[in-house]
C-alpha cells in the first residue's frame, strides 16, 4: 500500500460494511436500502447483493426482511473488524523469518490462487524468489498462529510454512528491502492529513453527506491499516502507523454514530 485510494463500494461490499459496522450485526432491508441510497446505490442492487451473499453463506435471513452477517463466512472481514487491534499482534523480533514455500500450488486454479495470494499479502508476506515468500517472524504465536491465520484467509493447502534463520548477509539485506518502507510511511502521513481534513469538515455537512464522507474515507484508511505488514522496528519505525490508527479510532467512533442514527432512525 503506497497510496490511500478512495473507492466507491459495490452493493455487496456496502451491505457487508453496514452489517459488520452495526452494533447488532443485523439490519432490515429498509435500513440497508437507506444506507445504499446515501452511497448512490439503488434498492434493486441491494436486493441482488443480498441474494448473492445468502447463496455464498456470508449472510443469513433472520426474520422477514432482516439479515445478519455470518462471521465464519467472511474471513477477511475478521481482519477488517479488528483493525484497531493490529499492533497487539506484534512481538519482539529475534531475527528469524517466516517462510511460505508455494511452488506446488497450482496457478491455473485462478480463484484459489487469488485467495492464496490475498492471504499472503494480508499477513505481510512478500515474494523473495519463485515459490518463496517471507516475512519477519515477529507476530504473536509465531509460525503456528500465522499458519492458522493464513489457512483461514485462504492459503493453499499445498503450501509449506516454516521458520528460516541464519540466512547469509546478502539474502538478509534483500529480504529487508522487499518492503518500500519510505513509501509506506509517507502514505501513512498523507492518510493522517486526509483523515484530519475530513474530520474537520464533518460538522459543517448535512448528516447524509457526512455519513457518506466517513464511509468513503474510513473504509479506505482501514483497508490500508489492515494491509500493513507489521514490520519490526528494526525495519520500519512504527510511529506513523500508530498515529494513523489512533486518529482513525477517533474518526470511526464519530462515523459509527452517524451511521447508527441514519440506519436506526
Domain tally: 3
Helix content: 40-55%
- Strand tally: 7
Helix/sheet category: alpha+beta
Total number of helical segments? 10
- Lateral arrangement of strands in the main beta sheet: 5-6-4-7
Distance between the termini: 37 Å
Sequence of secondary-structure elements: HEHHEEHEHEEHEHHHH
Main sheet, how many strands, which sense, barrel? 4 strands, antiparallel
Explain this structure:
It is built from 10 helices and 7 strands. Helices cover 54% and strands 12% of the residues. Strands 5-6-4-7 form a 4-stranded antiparallel sheet, with helices on one face. A 3-stranded antiparallel sheet has the order 1-3-2. The chain is globular and about 60 Å long. It has 3 domains: 11-75, Arc Repressor Mutant, subunit A, CATH 1.10.10; 96-164, Alpha-Beta Plaits, CATH 3.30.70; 180-264. With 265 residues, the protein is an alpha+beta fold.
Short description:
The chain has 265 residues and is of the alpha+beta class. It has ten helices and seven strands. The chain has three domains: 11-75, Arc Repressor Mutant, subunit A; 96-164, 2-Layer Sandwich (Alpha-Beta Plaits), CATH 3.30.70; 180-264.
Task: Sum up the structure in keywords.
single chain, 265 residues, alpha+beta, Arc Repressor Mutant, subunit A, Alpha-Beta Plaits, 3 domains, 4-stranded antiparallel β-sheet, 3-stranded antiparallel β-sheet, 10 helices, 7 strands, 54% helix, globular
Amino acid at each position: 500500500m503506497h497510496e490511500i485510494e478512495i473507492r466507491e463500494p459495490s452493493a455487496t461490499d456496502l451491505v457487508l460494511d453496514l452489517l459488520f459496522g452495526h452494533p447488532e450485526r443485523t439490519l432490515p432491508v429498509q435500513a440497508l436500502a437507506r444506507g445504499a441510497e446515501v452511497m448512490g446505490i439503488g434498492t434493486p442492487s441491494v436486493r441482488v447483493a443480498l441474494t448473492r451473499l445468502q447463496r455464498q453463506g456470508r449472510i443469513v435471513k433472520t426474520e422477514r426482511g432482516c439479515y445478519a452477517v455470518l462471521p465464519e463466512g467472511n474471513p477477511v472481514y475478521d481482519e477488517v473488524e479488528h483493525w484497531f487491534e493490529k499492533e497487539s499482534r506484534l512481538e519482539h523480533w529475534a531475527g528469524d523469518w517466516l517462510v511460505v514455500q508455494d511452488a506446488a500450488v497450482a496457478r491455473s486454479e485462478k480463484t484459489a490462487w487469488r485467495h492464496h495470494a490475498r492471504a499472503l499479502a494480508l499477513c505481510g508476506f512478500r515474494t523473495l524468489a519463485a515459490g518463496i515468500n517471507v516475512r519477519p517472524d515477529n507476530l504473536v504465536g509465531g509460525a503456528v498462529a500465522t499458519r492458522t491465520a493464513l489457512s483461514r484467509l485462504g492459503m493453499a493447502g499445498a503450501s509449506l510454512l516454516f521458520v528460516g534463520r541464519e540466512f547469509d548477509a546478502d539474502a538478509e539485506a534483500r529480504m529487508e528491502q522487499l518492503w518500500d518502507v519510505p513509501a509506506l510511511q509517507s502514505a501513512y502521513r498523507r492518510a493522517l492529513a486526509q483523515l484530519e481534513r475530513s474530520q474537520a469538515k464533518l460538522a459543517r455537512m448535512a448528516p447524509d453527506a457526512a455519513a457518506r464522507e466517513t464511509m468513503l474515507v474510513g473504509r479506505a484508511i482501514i483497508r490500508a491499516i489492515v494491509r500493513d505488514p507489521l514490520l519490526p522496528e528494526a525495519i520500519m519505525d512504527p510511529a506513523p502507523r500508530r498515529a494513523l490508527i489512533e486518529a482513525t479510532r477517533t474518526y470511526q467512533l464519530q462515523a459509527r454514530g452517524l451511521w447508527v442514527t441514519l440506519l436506526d432512525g
